[in-house]
Amino acid sequence: MPNKSAWCIIILVIFFSSCDSNQVFDEYKSVQKQWHKDSIMSFKVNPPDSIKPYKLYVNIRNTNAYKFNNLFLIVEMVYPHGKTTKDTLEYQMAKPSGELLGEGITDIKENKLWYKGFEKPFVFDEKGDYIIKIQHAMRNNGDINGVDNLEGITDVGFRIESVSN
Fold it and tell me: Domains in the chain, start-ordered, CATH in brackets?
């Protein structure tokens, strides 16, 4: 009969392996010190099913060095047969008080931001590789030119989850 420590480990393994059962794809790319406006984070995805619906997210990890209360991103999806969609998206990153939003108990916050599939689940209707490209489009108030180097972003990720029935 296993001792209490062995049982605790077994229960923890089961718990943590079952927490993320909807995950289909989850990948991060690190940002080197600052995220340059011309630096595009690219993710290659080959969805397992061209009929099943999914939820798509952009994941951002940021630190207290992030000085804006919002984040503008340009997200481009290149389909296997050449079709391209491009969206300019805005996300709230801080409360009016300046407190950063996101999960995390350290100075790094993780934000799971909707991309597609929130109003109606997204279907990858073409078989093959999809390319997701993400870049920031931040500007200072009253400034025509964009922020060249965005501080405080440590990682940019892309996530696909299957829709629970």
Answer: 22-162 (2.60.120)
